[in-house]
Amino acid sequence: MSDTNVYNRLRIFDTTLRDGEQAPGCSMTLTEKLRVAKALSELKVDIIEAGFPAASPGDFDAVKAIADRNFGPVICGLARCNPADIEKVHAAVKGAENHRIHVFVATSAIHREHKLKMAKEEIIKSAVGAIKMARELCDDVEFSPEDASRTELSYLAEVVSAAIEAGATTVNIPDTVGYTVPAEFDRLFRYLKEHVARIDDVILSVHCHDDLGMAVANSLAAVGAGARQVECTINGIGERAGNCSLEEIVMAIKTRAEFFNVDTGIETTRLYPTSRLVSNITGMHLPRNKAIVGENAFAHEAGIHQHGMLQHASTYEIMRPEDVGLSKSSLVLGKHSGRHAFRDRVVELGFELDEFETNRSFQEFKKLADKKKDVYDGDIESIIMNADGTSSGPWTLQSLEVQTHTDEPATVTVNLIGEDSKVASESAIGDGPIAAAVQALEKATGVDLILRNFELHSASIGEDAQGEVTVSVEIDGRNFRGRGASVDIVEAGCRACLEVMNRTLRRRARGEDTNVKAHSVHATI
Ligand code: KIV
Ligand code: ZN
Q1: Distance from CA of residue 9 to its chain's centroid?
Q2: Which ligand has the shortest distance to the CA of 78?
Q3: Is the CB of 178 under 6 A from ligand 1?
Q4: Residue 389 pLDDT
Q5: Ligand 1 binding pocket includes 207 (Cβ within 6 Å)
Q6: In sequence order, what are the beta bridge partners of 413?
Q7: I need a labelling partner for 328 at 20 to 30 A (CA). Which of 155, 292, 362, 407 fits?
Q8: Which of the listed residues 21, 104, 180 should we mutate to test ligand 1's pocket, taking the one with most ligand atoms within 8 A of CB?
Q9: How does residue 522 score in pLDDT terms, banded at 50, 70 and 90?
Q10: Where are the alpha helices (DSSP H) in 349-398?
């Protein structure tokens, strides 16, 4: 970036906790949402859309808890165009010094006819009423015409004009179904700039989905045509194929600032740790070749590239790994590493642990370093994610015996220790070691579960890498996710299931209702 250029400011509106979390398999507990919100504030996003308070009491509580922490960014909540939704958003976000109400209504013919069954004028009336009400409660109001990219241009301009007259301060243009292409979206933004009288009085925003793999490209086209806010999610998580990826759009803008003539306030060295945090929490692992934050994003394998890199890094590198928070080497610690080195690395990876958590994680690290020679960043992250407070008792896995033989059922014995030093030892036979282990755990804990999904991921590299298991299970009609890690993959699976069983037992001990239907993906216990 040259010193002489003064770039326009592009706001980064993160919707990981709303549009991202809404995606199947991405639901987060309240504690996890708070961790993500804190990481987003360290990343210095401008706005955090923390949730959709009217969607469920759990959503309301999470938005309120985030707003009340006052992390720094503007805290926003989503509402449909009705008074109850708007009041709920206001009640949830008002604890934050800077807060925003985001109202939306669909405007395309398909949505008008088949979903809303409302005429064009009715939709405008509803939007105007909602914006006016929101403005009475809050100075910062965003309006989104859902499915804008498939809305007739002249009608869209009419809706946007009415929204501005009603008091919207940001107007967001969503490509809700990921249908548009860059040249078309550029035209749409230029049309609005030309045909909406007071368009320059508001911040024009863009919100793209990735169904055709063009969310980032479409968002950049909108920026080129005057959008000054981009809505995006960490790792691009979101409904269906996801949303515009925050790390990609931010690095595209940073790398090509002179082309776009804008810059963001993002602390780009926090991109990698934040991406890892969200991927660990959601269990949505990234492809190795994912731009910016994938394991191979900065790896140069081909000899000719390596030769060029050695001569001068810029021959094949348009960004420096350190700029996105990737350390130059990922081999970090071993069994002779001390507490100090461990703590430094933990901080570099973006975790903030208190004394108790540091001690607990350090002990786990020492145990792991006895089993495997090299401890990598992925291993450390795995230890910390599994040292989360939610994984504590009542039951701890003391030992596990597994017998398998090709073409024969597997037998597993689990030995658990309870909080009161009670011992539970149970065996079971199953088609495979995981099925047998789950049954043995069910007998030992008294918690029955249906295993819906079992994902195994290597936390680092090499044959002795830890296996990280994420399970999705159904208990008492509700869906939950559990995580476990170990160099033994059956043990990792057991730990993941036991984590969810323990949470269920704690919830039952608190007398909380267990009879909620399975599709409740917003379960937070
Ligand atoms: O995709 C979409 O249209 C949305 C709106 C609610 C902004 O998420
Ligand atoms: Zn969306």
Answers
A1: 24
A2: 1
A3: no
A4: 42
A5: yes
A6: 401, 427
A7: 362
A8: 104
A9: very low
A10: 355-371, 377-386
Nearest atom in ligand 1 to 15's CA? 8
Q: Domains plus CATH for the chain?
A: 11-282 (3.20.20.70), 304-385 (1.10.238), 389-509 (3.30.160.270)
Q: What backbone torsions phi and psi does residue 486 show, to the nearest 5 degrees?
A: -170, 160
CB 79 within 8 A of CB 86: yes
Q: Is 198 helix (H, G, I), strand (E, B) or coil?
A: coil
Residue 2 tokens, joined: 């040259």
Distance 104 CA to ligand 1 centre (A): 8
Q: Rounded distance, CA 479 to CA 221, Å?
A: 39
Instruction: Return the minimum-mean-pLDDT range out of 70-84, 209-223, 310-324.
Output: 310-324
| Nearest CA-CA partner of 264 in 46, 39, 99 | 46
- Hunting for tokens 């708007």 — which residue is that? 86
For residue 135 the two structure tokens come to 């403005």
Q: What letter does residue 243 receive in the DSSP assignment?
A: B
For the chain, what is the radius of gyration of the CA atoms?
25
pLDDT tens column, 397-433: 999 999 999 999 999 999 999 988 899 999 999 999 9
Question: What pLDDT is attached to residue 165?
Answer: 98
| Total residue length of the chain | 525
C-alpha of residue 177 to centroid of ligand 1, in Å: 9
Report CA torsion sign: 36, 234, 285, 373: negative
CB-side neighbour CA atoms (13 Å) of 184? 13
User: Which ligand 1 atom is at minimum distance from the Cα of 19?
Assistant: 8
Distance, in Å, from the CA atom of 184 to the CA atom of 160, rounded to the nearest integer, reads: 18
Range in 42-51, 222-231, 494-503 with the lowest mean pLDDT: 494-503
Q: Which residue has the tokens 């199947």?
A: 24
The two tokens of residue 261 are 């003539």
Please work out whether the CB of residue 104 comes within 6 Å of at least one atom of ligand 1.
Answer: yes
Q: Does ligand 1 have an atom closer than 6 angstroms to the CB of 229?
A: no
| CA–CA gap between residue 464 and residue 397 (Å, rounded) | 21
- Compute the distance between CA of residue 98 and CA of residue 386 in angstroms, rounded to an integer: 34
pLDDT at 434 over 60: yes
Element (H, E) at 93: helix 83-93
pLDDT of residue 257: 95
Query: Which strand (E) or helix (H) includes residue 100?
Result: strand 99-106
Q: Which ligand is nearest to the CA of 239?
A: 2
- What pLDDT, on a 0 to 100 scale, did the predictor assign at position 39? 95
Ligand 1 pocket test: pick from 207, 208, 229, 230 the residue with the most ligand atoms within 8 Å of its Cβ.
207
Q: Which residues contact 525 (CB under 8 A, 6 or more apart)?
A: 29, 480, 503, 504, 506, 507, 512
- Those residues whose C-beta lies under 8 Å from the C-beta of residue 479, and which sit 6 or more positions away, are 27, 452, 472, 473, 518, 519, 520, 521, 523
Amino acid at the residue 372: K
User: What is the Cα–Cα distance from 436 to 425, expressed in whole angstroms?
Assistant: 14
Q: Is the CB of 146 under 6 A from ligand 1?
A: yes
Would you say 11 and 230 are in contact if contact means Cβ atoms under 8 Å apart?
Answer: yes
